[in-house]
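SEQUENCE-TO-STRUCTURE ENTRY
===========================
Question of interest: how does this chain fold, as expressed in backbone structure tokens?
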Amino acid sequence: MVTRTITINDPVGIHARPAAQFAQAVTASGCTVTIAKEGGNPVPAGSILSVMGLGIKQGDNVVIDVEGDNAESVADNLTGILVAAE
């Protein structure tokens, strides 16, 4: 399993567009991926509604866990999606 922790800098947090891009990338990866606010309960990252339901705002730390083939590159790609949304 590969874990990445990032701080969200986008003033509006993770809203519909980045949540959709993130969830689509998770589904396409074929890996098992969860996302959580740091210290919170993880949710399936392939669900747009689950990701948006976390209510991630600017300044929140987000933990992404990836399990499966190419977990390192998938984690890097997913982190890039959230950082690019900023």
